[in-house]
Design brief:
about 25% helix; six-stranded mixed sheet; alpha/beta; 8 strands; about 150 residues; D-tyrosyl-trna(Tyr) Deacylase, Chain: A
Length: about 150
């Protein structure tokens, strides 16, 4: 599983002009599910999202997590994180999970973050979405559950 984690001052996602998810200061996370991913991968991503120390403490050091600062989350599905651009000019998506399994594991991530008491906004799975955000810092990190070691 892959995730692009962005520290944001605010974010929102719209479908057809209707706002379907928002988050105040916290994180905006794009989540892509790979064809071999499992619930273990989803749990790994949840723990990283919740505990990454990417918010400043009183000394200005990145020493606080989303949980420490009481931040909010906007989580958006993003199968294109598995786009392979190494050959040709059109990305291939053979490494992305089939939609039903991707949605199931995406929901494991969303539910895991909510279970930790975090306010979570979401996009709408398998729809064209407009994502707007104010990247704070900017701080943007890439997570990959297959690159833990």
């Amino acid at each position: 599983m892959r995730a692009v984690v962005q520290r944001t001052k605010s974010s929102r996602v719209s479908v057809g002009g209707e706002v379907v998810g928002t988050a105040d200061a916290g994180l905006t996370v794009l989540v892509g599910v790979g064809r071999d991913d499992t619930e273990e991968d989803a749990r790994y991503i949840v723990q990283k999202i919740l505990h990454l120390r990417i918010f400043e403490d009183e000394d200005g050091k990145l020493n606080r997590s989303l949980l420490d600062v009481g931040g909010e989350l906007l989580i958006v599905s993003q199968f294109t994180l598995y786009g392979d651009c190494r050959k040709g000019r059109r990305p291939g998506f053979s490494e992305a999970a089939v939609p039903a399994e991707a949605e199931r594991l995406y929901e494991v991530v969303v539910d895991g973050c909510r279970a930790a008491g975090v306010t979570v906004g979401t996009g709408r799975f398998r729809t064209e979405m407009d994502v707007e955000l104010v990247n704070w810092g900017p701080v943007t990190l890439l997570l990959d559950s297959r690159r833990q070691f």
